[in-house]
Amino acid sequence: MKKNVLIIGAGGVAQVVAHKCAQNNDVLGDIHIASRTKAKCDKIIASVHEKKALKQPGVLEGHALDALDIEATKALIQKTGAEIVINVGTAFLNMSVLRACMDTGVAYIDTAIHEEPGKICETPPWYGNYEWKRAAECEEKGITAILGAGFDPGVVNAYAKLAKDEYLDKVTDVDIVDINAGSHGRYFATNFDPEINFREFTGVVYSWQNGQWQTNKMFEIGKEYDLPVVGKRKAYLCGHDEVHSLAKNMDGADVRFWMGFGDHYINVFTVLKSIGLLSEQPVKLAEGQEVVPLKVVKACLPDPASLAPDYEGKTCIGDYVKGLKDGKEKTVFIYNVADHKEAYEEVGSQGISYTAGVPPVAAAMLIATGEWDVKRMANVEELPPKPFINLLNRIGLPTRIQDENGDRPVSFD
Amino acid sequence: MKKNVLIIGAGGVAQVVAHKCAQNNDVLGDIHIASRTKAKCDKIIASVHEKKALKQPGVLEGHALDALDIEATKALIQKTGAEIVINVGTAFLNMSVLRACMDTGVAYIDTAIHEEPGKICETPPWYGNYEWKRAAECEEKGITAILGAGFDPGVVNAYAKLAKDEYLDKVTDVDIVDINAGSHGRYFATNFDPEINFREFTGVVYSWQNGQWQTNKMFEIGKEYDLPVVGKRKAYLCGHDEVHSLAKNMDGADVRFWMGFGDHYINVFTVLKSIGLLSEQPVKLAEGQEVVPLKVVKACLPDPASLAPDYEGKTCIGDYVKGLKDGKEKTVFIYNVADHKEAYEEVGSQGISYTAGVPPVAAAMLIATGEWDVKRMANVEELPPKPFINLLNRIGLPTRIQDENGDRPVSFD
User: What are the distances in angstroms from CA B36 to CA A54, A287, B10, B11, B193?
Assistant: First the structure.
C-alpha cells in the first residue's frame, strides 16, 4: 500500500487531479500540490474546499517548487511523505521529476512525454529518447513509473490493450480519434498549455504503418469520422505520444492518431506557423532581446483553465481497433464521451482538462491498492486494463463500446 | 544654398535616399548615413558604389548613431557639416532628430509622423501631438522642417494642393488611394517596417468628413477602385498621416485614405490582431520576461528590404480630388505608377521603398536650391507643388492625371 500524493503543476489538469484525489483521499491519503507559483496551488485548494471535495478530513497543502530542481523536489517528497508523485506540470519537467522519484524510491505518474525546450518532434519512438533510458534502473530499484497516464496517451492505450485481450484474436490497426466538439466562445484558444499543444503539430507527423515509421505533414491527411454523440467530424493524422509506445506493444499493428480540427483552428495555426510564430527557437528582436516566439503566442492566448466557465459541448475520444476474430475481420470502437459543463460543475475545469486529469488519479489509486504497483517503468498498455477501466467508470470517465453488437457500456465488475 | 545631407536610418527607404542623393550630389554635396548598426550604412554605401550612382566624386560616409540620443545626433550633424537631415529611421526617432536639427540650425525632413512606442492612434490631428508643437520655435529660429515628405504622406499632399490650385475652384473631397499590385512571392511580408506598418492599422480609423473626425474600424469600409495600369482593386478606409494635415489645409474638404489589401493580408492581419500579437503593449511570459508581441512579429517577418530582388509588379498611388470647376462638379485623379523591378535595378530596393525614398530627396534638393527653404515647419501641401512635381518627374516618379480630358503626364517645365 503506497500512500500520500504529491501533485506537480497547478494548471487546469492539476485542478482536476486535486479534486479527484480529494474525492478519493480515503485511498490516497495526504494531498500536496507543488508549483513555481504557490498562489496557483492555493487557488486549487480553495476550490477543493469550496466544492467540499475531500471525502474524509485530511491533509491538503500547497508548496512553491521549481520542479527542474531535482534536489528541491526530492526534499519536498521527503518532507511531505508522498509515496506517489503525479506529474501534471509542463512536459519539460518529466526527467527531473522522474529522477527525484527514482532517488527517493517513490512511484511516478505522468501524462505526456518529456520534451526539451529547444527540440520538437525528435526521432521516434519518442519515449526512447528520454523515459525508456531509465527503464532498467527503475526495474533494478523497484520503482513504479507509469508513463503517459492521461486520456490520450493513457486511457486510449488501455482501450487498445483491451481490444487485443478481449475482443480480437489479432489486431491489425489502431486508429485513435480525439474529437473536441465543445465550444469556448473565444476567438482562439488551446485546451492545453499552448506551448505544448502547438509543439505537437509544428513538426513532422509520425505514424506507425507497415512495420515502420511513416512521416507526413500536419493537415496533410484528413478523414471524416462519424462518432457517437458528437456526429460527423473531420479529423487529421497527427503525431502523438501514444503512437510511440503502441508501435512497440501492439504486435506490429498499424497505429495512427487522429485529432479533430475545425477550419478556423487550421487557418489560425497555418498563419502563425507560416510566419514563424510557433517556433520553439529564439529570435532576436531589433532591440537585441532574445525571445522564443511560441512563448509569446502562449502569453497572448487565453489560459486554458480560464475557458472552463463558458465551455459547452462534449468530447469523444476513443480507439477504432481493427483485426481478426474467429478468422473474420472485425472492428470495435471503444470510447468515452465527456461533457465540458458537467466537468466544470464537478471540479471547476473544462472537459479536456477533466479527461486528462481523472486517469492519472485512477492510476495513483491502482498503485495505492497495489494492482498497478508494478515496481518497474510501464506504459499504460503494459498494465492490466480492466481494473483501470472499472475504476474510471466509477470516478467519472465511463467507457463504452461500439461493434456489430451495438453500442453499450464496458465494465468488468 | 544649404548643402551636405545626413541620412538617418539604413533600411530599404534609406537605401533609396542614399542612391538618389548620390545621383544628385552635384546639388546636395556630401552624403552621410547614420544608423545604430554602422554595417547597414556600409552595405548601402557599397551598393551606391557598385551602381556607380555618385554623379560626381564626393563624400559618402557611414556612421554609428543612436538617434534617440539628441547630443550624439547634434555632434554628428556638426562633425559632418550637414545642413539638411533626411530622417528615414523609425518613426519613434522624429522628435529627437528634429530637436537636434533645431538646436544646430539645420533643415529637417521626415516621411512619417512621430510615434511613441507605447501609444497608437492618438487623438487627431496626430501632428498636433508632437511635431506641430515645435512649429512656433521653428519659425522663430528660422528652421526649415518639412514633415511627411515621402509619397503618402508627401507627394499625395502635393497632389491635393495641385488639384486645388490648378484644376478646381473648390475642393470637396480628397480620396487618397494607395494600391500595391506587386508580388514578393513570400507567404506574408510588410513593405515597410512591420512594427510601423501594423501600428497604422491596429487602432481606430480616422477620416475627416463633414468638418469633423469620423472613426471607423479597420476593414469596416471597403470600396473597389479601377485604377490605371493596376486595374480593379479593393481598397479599405484606413487611418494615415496625411489625413491629419490635409484636414487642416484643404479648406474643410473631406479627406479619406484608402489602401488596397488582398484577402490573404486581411486574414493574416485578423488572426494576428485577434490573438493580440500586434499589440504594442508588453506581455509577461510564463518565465517572467516582458516582451512587446508586435516586436516579435516584426522579428519573424521578412526584412522589407529583403523582398526587393524578387518583387514584381506595379504600384499606383494617387489622389481622387473632387470639387467644383466653373460651377460644375469635376473629379481629377493625379497619380504615379512605379515598378518594383525597375526600382530594384536602379537603386536595389523594391517599389514601395522607392516611392517613399525619392520624394524626401526631391525635398532636400528643393531646400538646397532654396525653393523650399522656407525657414519654418511645413507639411508638403503648404509648399509650392509645381517645383516638387517637376523634380519628381525628372528623378524617377513621374506624375500623371486622369480627368474628362483623358490620361496624360503632368509637368510644369
Answer: 62, 10, 9, 11, 16
Residue type, B300: C
Per-residue pLDDT of B19-59, as tens digits, reads 999 999 999 999 999 999 999 999 999 999 999 999 999 99
- Give the per-residue pLDDT at B118: 80
List, in order, residues 6 or more apart from A97 with CB less than 8 Å away.
A8, A67, A73, A85, A87, A89, A108, A110
In chain B, which among 286-305 make CB contacts under 8 A with chain A?
Answer: 286-287, 289, 291, 293, 295-301
- What pLDDT is recorded for position A214? 97
- Please list, in sequence order, all residues whose beta carbon lies within 8 angstroms of the beta carbon of residue A172, skipping any fewer than 6 positions away: A253, A254, A322, A323, A324
pTM more than 0.90:
no
B300 and A279: CB-CB below 8 Å? yes
Q: What is the pLDDT of residue A56?
A: 97
Mutate to test the interface with B, among A296, A297, A298, A303 (most CBs of B within 10 A): A296
Taking CB atoms and an 8 Å limit, are A295 and B277 in contact across chains? no
What structural domains does chain B harbor?
Answer: 5-150+354-394 (3.40.50.720), 155-349+398-409 (3.30.360.10)
Contact across the interface for B295 and A275, Cβ inside 8 Å: no
Residue B329 makes CB contacts below 8 A (sequence gap 6+) with B322, B323
CA distance B38 to B45: 11
Beta strands in A228-306 (DSSP E): 231-238, 254-260, 283-284, 290-291
- State which residues of chain A have pLDDT below 70: none
Grid cell, residue A403, equals 461493434
Alpha helices for B108-190 (secondary structure H) = 126-129, 135-141, 155-162
Give per-residue pLDDT as tens, A197-218: 888 787 899 999 999 999 999 9
Alpha-carbon gap, residue B291 to A176, rounded angstroms: 39
The shortest CB-CB distance from B275 to any of A274, A276, A300 is to: A300
Element (H, E) at A147: strand A145-147
Under DSSP, the state recorded for B234 is E
* CA trace torsion B223, B224, B226, B229 (10° rounding): 100
One-letter amino acid at B391 equals: L
* CA–CA dist B409, B399 (Å, integer): 6
Alpha-carbon torsion (B157, B162, B164, B167), positive or negative: negative
Which of A291, A292, A294, A303 is best to mutate for the B interface (most B CBs within 10 A)? A291
Q: Please, what is the average pLDDT of chain B?
A: 96
Q: Is A285 on the interface with B (CB under 8 A)?
A: yes
